[in-house]
Every structure is written in structure tokens, then in C-alpha cells.
Amino acid sequence: MSLTLPVAPGRRLRLDVRTALVCLVLALLSLAIGLVSLCWGSGWDPPGDVLAALRGEGPIQISVTQWRMPRIVAALVFGVALGLAGAIFQNLTRNPLGAPDIIGLDAGAYTGVLLVFTLTAASEATIMLAALAGGLSAALVVYLLSSGTGFSGLRLVVIGIGVQAILTAVNSWIILRAELDVAIAASVWQAGSLNGLDWVDIDTPVTVIAVLTVALVLLARPLHQAALGDDLAITSGVRLERLRVLLVLLGVGLSATVTAVAGPIVFIALAAPQIGRRLAGAAGVPLLPAALAGALLLTGSDLLSQWILAPTVMPVGVVTTGVGGLYLLWLLTKEIRR
Amino acid sequence: MSATTHRIPARALAVGSVLLGAAVLVSLTVGKGGVGSADALRALLDPEPGNAAHLTVRSVRLPRALLAVLVGAALALSGALVQTLTRNALAEPGLLGVTAGASFAVVLGTRFLGVSGQAPTLLIAFVGAAVAAVAVQAVGRADPLRLVLAGVALTAVLAGLSIGIRLTDPETFDKYRFWSVGSLAGREQLPLLLPCLVLTLALAAALLLGRPLGALMLGDDVAQGLGVPVARVRGLTLVVATVLAATATAVAGPIMFVGLIVPHLVRRFAQASITWLMVLCLVVGPLLMVVADTLARVLLQTGEVPVAVLTAVLGGAMLIWVVRRHGAMEL
Asked: What is the domain-level CATH number for residue B49?
């Protein structure tokens, strides 16, 4: 079912009602979980106190606005970024397994970070740059290896799986050879966590993600046209090669930015686009449901990770795999019954 | 079948066997402990009872090489069966949740049932692998892509759960760590008669399935017309593939990629015959495993590289090469 809304004279916006509803519900749920997370610290604070803290009053003002808030903003924004990155690559490869954490980009970012840890002094800026450089190099290698006679999504995914395996092996080799303190620091980073994120830590990545998202919105139309098939895209005037390169850059930028700050938070980029797509009942992999499903998955997982083993905080990556995987399985079984 | 269809696979088999023999010999003569190549050969042919070097070769290197051969054969054959059954070149016991199921079961068993010792660990790993395989098949059904997706999803869930359990219980973490490295180091000292027996039986059963599976590849209707009990063959194949992968995983820990890459490598030589595909897997799987295990022992000055790291590097590189050269093979 779709509605056609007149936006401006001569311009109409086609709106799929189910997609719009799904997006609305996903967004509201993410925000609701964000609010609950605001109340949850070392214990439960009543929402009244939290609201007062948000107005700048009350005893828990610092912990709400300086500690919990940045974490929740990070979960929302990073979730969106991961969902978008997954949707980009799944559209590009026309394959549900074409997610950055499957085709080696996360492993590449981790290799970059490991090299920084072992070779030079690790600072925030160098780690971020190294993650970006590693992710981009991995993407470049996968893309170059899989190009050749024509472009095939399946080939890219299989080659990505191969590159991922090699990089993972290289990573464990580096950790095996490293000094103990380096190995420990690297493993902490690898677990993937939003623990201890501050406004200072997240302002640059959030800006970067915002810029990349705007750029992606401009490319959304040709992206969906390209997903329908090469021939169709070319006839409708899409320049495929240039589009692919731009999209790969955007996708790597989005996932590597998150990886650089929070470590590899796996599985959201894989699961969120598929969840969003199935909820919206769409034929391709639409961007907005993927982004919002990513935000919901990450905020929900982050809350769970603080709560399951309280007072110990689990790495959020552990929870995302559990939650996202279970939900994806459930969706798959439901699809069979239909 | 005419003689020409057998010539290429037979040649591949001969070359593979020679290479495998050479690799096993090298793996017996190379290693630490100051045993030279000449000494190692003498230990095999004319052992002296009191000689420590000869003891090393006969009681450490020889069983370890045999173990590598068996595990490699089991993983490769299991991969060939699953790929044939699902008609999906990406299917691999690891990708279909078998490895994760075995790992998760080992974690559960050590944490809640107090399982330790080899036979119980083997049993519980097998049960976990079987349950995971059935679950993935039930969710994925016939659609190859959905099968892989279901396998990846289940793998992720189980991995997350077992990390959770391991984080709460240091003792389980410690025991699991040893099992999970994916290595043959030290495994040759365990009593391996039972798993070897199971693996040999399953390998034989798999070869018997070659002909009916070949018929199945022509389509279910054709197979039925040829008098093949389609449902039973499918079920048996799944059971055998699970037994192979689960036992290998229980013995050697999770070793990815052998099951994915070896069938890919030998498919071109098998000339579309499932039986030849499996026979070639029986040679090339062990070859990859023995080479990886030998490298694992000599690459580091002290200690060993887990063999799973090496199979990943070798397998990943080969996978890329095969896909680039011949395209992602559709079945």
C-alpha cells in the first residue's frame, strides 16, 4: 500500500505506508530505550530525577548529562551508521551476507589498530586513522580482487570471506607475537564496547557519521536503482562504476568510524538491514529501516549489556550477536510458515 | 562411465597421493627437539627402543600426522557432502553452525554438567553439532542463501552465549581456552582410538552415498525415477556430514575453512562425479591439514602457531584464487 503526497507543485512524494509505520515504530522504540538507559546507572533512578537532571538540577545531574547521555547518543548514532553501512554493502552485492563484518572490513580495521598498538605509540587520533586506513585498504583489496570481467556480488562476498579469514589469522598472529600488555590492550579494544565513552570521545565520530549520512541520502536513489539490476540501472542513467566506488567509500567510512571509537561491534551491519527489510516487507534493502533497526539493536543491546551481569558490564558486541542473531532466526522461521 | 571421464580424476588422485605421502614424511622429519631428518627416518624404519629421539618421532610426530590426516579428511568430506546436499558452493560445516554448536555444547557441558575428560567432551560436542545442524536445516530449508544466513545467525547467537557463560565462570574459560585454539598440539597424547574409529566408519559411509547423491544432483524427480529413496539419502547425508564435522571438531577444536576450500579445489578434477569428488577430498583435505600442521610447528621460534590460523591463511588465499580464476561456482 502506498500513498502519494503532493509535496510541492509538480513534485510528489510516494510514501509506502507500511515502511513509514515500521520506521516510526523503530524510531520511537529506540528513543524509549534511550530514555530507560538514561535512568539506569549503577542502579535505577526515577524518571523524575533524570528529567530534573536534564534541566540541569538535582544530585545526579553530572552522571546523567556527562556519563549516560554521551553513551546513549553514541549507541543511537553508531547503530544508525552500522545499519546504513550494512545496507550499502548488501545492496551493492545483492547478497544478505555482504556486510562489512563478513567481508573483511572490520578485520582490516582491527589489523590497522593492532599495527598501531605494536609499532607506534597509540593515541586516540592514530587509532582512529589506523582503523580507517585498515578498513579502506581491506575494502580496496576485496574490490580489486573481485573486479575483473564484470561485477558479481556473490564473487565479492566469497572473496571478502577469504580476505576476512586471512586478516583474522594475521591478527591472531600479531597478538601471539606481541608483548603481553599490548595484547591485553588490543583484546580490550576488540571486545567492542561503549563503556566509558565521553562527549570528547564521540564528537568527531558523530560529526563524521552525520556528514557521511547526508552524502548517502543524496546517493539513495541511484543506489536503489542499481540494486534492481545492472541493465536497468544503466538505462535509467546511473553511472555504475562511479556509484560503486562512492558507495564503498561511504560504507567503509561509516563502519570504520564506529570501529575506530567503539571497537568492532559485530553483527549489527549484517542483521539490521535484513530485519528492517523484512519488517518493511520491501523487495530490496531499504536504507531508512536498516538505519533505524541498527539504532534499536545497538541501544537495546547496550542496555542489556549493562543489566544482564550487573554490576559487571558485558562487551556490547556479545549482546548484539545474541539479540540480533536470535531475532534474525525468528524472522527466517516466520518467513517459512507463510 | 567411459574411460576418459576417469582419466583426469585418476591423475589428480595419483598426484595428490604422492604429495600427501611427501607431506607426511616431511612432517615426520621436521620439528623441534633436535631430531634430524636422517634420525627421524631411521626411527621409522629401524627404531632403537632406548633412543629418545626415536621415541619422539614414533610417539609424538607419527600419531600427530595421522590425526592431521584423519581430521583433514573428515572436514573436507563433510564440506563436500554439505555443498552437494544444499547445492550451495558457500556451504561449509562451519558456516552451517556445526562448529559453533559443538563449541557451545562444550562450554555448556563444562560449566553446568562438570564434563571433563575426552570421551564425554567428544560426545557432548557431537550432540551440540548435531542439534545445531538440524536447527539450521529446519530454519533454512531448501533455499541455499537462507541456509547460510540461518547458519551465520545461529553461529553468532551461540558464540555470544558462550562468551557470556565463559565471562561469568573463569574455570570454564580456562578449560575451553585449551579446546578452542583449534590446534593439533598435544592432542596426539589423548586416547584417540574411539574418534578414529568413528571417523573411519563415517568416511566409509560417505563413500557409499556417492552414487545415490549423484542421482540426487539430477533433480529429485529424476532420482525418484531411478529408484533412489530421496528423503532417506538426504537424511543419511546430513547425519554423516554432521558426524564427520562434529568428531573432527571435538578432537581438534574449531578449524574453519578446510571444509569450504577443499571441495572447491578438487571440484574441477572430479568431472561432476560425486564419488570422485569425495575420493579427491580424502587426499587433498589431509594434504592441506598436514602442510598447515607442519608449518604450525616450525614457524615460531618458541611455541606453536595454532593450526587453525594457518588453515585460514592458506584456505583464504586459495579461495580467492579459485573464485578469481573460475568464478564463484554455482552448483
From this structure: 1.10.3470.10
Overall number of domains in chain B: 1
Contact B157 A163 (CB under 8 A): no
Tell me the whole-structure pTM to 2 decimals: 0.75
Residue B1 within a domain: no
pLDDT tens digits along B206-235:
888 888 888 877 777 787 888 778 778 888
Count of alpha carbons within 13 angstroms of residue A212, beta-carbon side: 28
Q: Do B148 and A97 touch (CB under 8 A)?
A: yes
By CB atoms closer than 10 A (0-12, 13-18, 19+), residue A49 is middle
What pLDDT, on the 0 to 100 scale, is given for residue A294? 93
Answer yes or no: is B282 within a domain. yes
Query: Which of B83, B95, B139, B147 is the best residue to mutate to test the A interface, defined by the most A CB atoms within 10 Å of its own CB?
Result: B139
Q: Is A1 within a domain?
A: no
With respect to residue B331, please indicate whether it lies within any of the assigned structural domains. no
The per-residue pLDDT for range A252-297, each reduced to its tens digit, is: 889 888 888 887 787 888 889 988 888 888 777 888 899 999 999 9
CATH number for the domain harbouring residue A248: 1.10.3470.10
What value of ipTM does the predicted structure carry?
0.70
Q: Which of B152, B157, B319 sits opposite A326 (nearest CB)?
A: B157
* CB atoms near residue B88 (< 10 Å): 20
A329 to B312: CB separation less than 8 angstroms, yes or no: no
Question: Could you list the residue range(s) of the whole structural domain that residue B20 is in?
Answer: 13-326
End-to-end Cα, chain B, rounded Å: 21
Instruction: Let me know if residue A6 belongs to a domain.
Output: no
On the question of a cis peptide bond just before residue B229, with omega within 30 degrees of 0, the verdict is no
Total tally of structural domains belonging to chain A: 1
Instruction: Write the DSSP symbol of residue A4.
Output: E
What are the distances in angstroms from CA A4 to CA A13, A20, A79, A282?
A: 6, 13, 30, 17
- Among A168, A314, A328, whose Cβ lies nearest the Cβ of B153? A328
Interchain CB contact of B120 with A (< 8 Å) = no
Contacting residues of A for B323, CB less than 8 Å apart: 146, 155, 158-159, 162
List chain A residues with CB under 8 Å of B310.
169
Residue A194 near residue A316 (C-beta atoms within 8 A): yes
Put simply, the answer to whether A166 touches B313 (Cβ < 8 Å) is yes
Query: In this structure, is the dihedral angle defined by the CA atoms of residues A289, A291, A292 and A298, taken in order, positive or negative?
Result: positive
B329 touching A (Cβ < 8 Å): no
Cell of B270: 572430479
Give the domain range for residue A118. 15-337
The answer, yes or no, to whether residue B330 has pLDDT greater than 50, is no
Measured in whole angstroms, how far is the alpha carbon of residue B165 from the centre of its chain? 27
Query: What are the grid coordinates assigned to A277, written together?
Result: 527489510
Provide φ and ψ at A275, rounded to 5°: -65, -50
